[in-house]
Specification:
By secondary structure, the chain is mainly alpha-helical. 16% of the residues are buried. Helix 1 runs antiparallel to helix 2. Helices cover 63% and strands 0% of the residues.
């Protein structure tokens, strides 16, 4: 897998995942919506740690700064 996520993109995803987890923890979200958002938060964290977003590849998006 070739890295295609920059540090800003990764940071935004981590912050979004933390926000979703806090919403779930404080019972702001519940039920099916909570499970869907928690799954999305987990996906955000995994893609942030591996620096690869599978959705970016077919769309040709690359936010990672390459070294020349």
């Amino acid at each position: 897998m070739k890295k295609n996520m920059g540090s800003l993109d990764k940071g935004i995803r981590v912050i979004a995942a933390i926000a979703i987890a806090l919403l779930y923890y404080f019972n702001v979200i519940s039920g099916t919506m909570a499970y869907i958002l928690m799954a999305l938060a987990i996906i955000f964290l995994i893609t942030s740690f591996v620096s690869f977003c599978p959705l970016y590849a077919p769309l040709g998006i690359n936010t990672c700064k390459t070294k020349k």
